Amino acid sequence: MKNYYHLLSFDDDLANDAANDLLKEGWDIVHVGTKLVKILDNGQAYYNTEYVLGGTKNQYEKYLEDCQQSELDYF
């Protein structure tokens, strides 16, 4: 098993896009599975796909910088 500096988990409606963006930057897939989001009023379970990615220290620091920049661009 590979040692990762940081793990990120995505399970919202944009999780697939977020995971693909990080994979293009060299992050590794650690796990893909389902995550229970909620139980609907009719008792049915609602699941999303969850992606867990692992990255190095440099990859994680770049991710943080990109997040800060996107927040600045948003406002």
Main sheet properties: 3 strands, antiparallel
Number of helices: 2
Q: How big a fraction of the residues is strand?
A: 35-45%
In the sheet with the most strands, the strands line up as 1-3-2
Number of strands: 3
Classification by helices and strands: alpha+beta
Fraction of residues in helices?
Answer: 25-40%
The whole-angstrom Rg is 15 Å
Mean pLDDT: 92
Helix and strand string, N-terminal first?
A: EHEEH
What number of structural domains do the residues give?
A: 1
**Spatial separation of the terminal alpha carbons:** 41 Å
Unreliable segments of 5+ consecutive residues = none
Could you explain how this protein is built, in words?
With 75 residues, the protein is an alpha+beta fold. It contains two helices and three strands. The protein has helices at residues 15-24, 57-74, and strands at residues 6-10, 28-39, 45-55. Strand 2 and strand 3 (45-55) form a beta hairpin. It is globular and about 45 Å long.
State the main characteristics.
single chain; 75 residues; three-stranded antiparallel β-sheet; 3 strands; globular
